[in-house]
Design a protein that fits this description.
single chain; mainly alpha; Arc Repressor Mutant, subunit A; 3-stranded antiparallel beta sheet; 6 helices; about 65% helix; elongated; BlaI_family; BlaI/MecI/CopY family transcriptional regulator; WH_DNA-bd_sf; transcription; WH-like_DNA-bd_sf
Length: about 120
Amino acid sequence: MKISSAESVIMEALWRKNPLTSEVIIAEVGEPNGWTEGTVKQLLSRLVKKKAVGATPEGRRYQYAPLVARGDYVAAESQGLLDRLFEGRLAPLVTQFSDAGKLSDQDIAELKALVERISK
């Protein structure tokens, strides 16, 4: 499932806390992004149509909650990125960041620890 960057802002809000009404979502992500009520509701409608978000009626309002776990979404997007740009391989991605000077000392330390843990 493809989730646009605008839709992912709404997903992040729902992954942080759910269920939420559209009013709460508008206040949390709409206003800071300069989105109107209509824009947020359109994004929610698209996410419901994609079955990424569920909408449960509660009185005259709907409660929205994610139907896709954040971890599953991140895993699929990460693999998609690797497949599209690096032939499915992680090392060229890390090399790209290294060559561009984008790896901090903390990033390098975390990568070293990860490699050490994986090697055991």
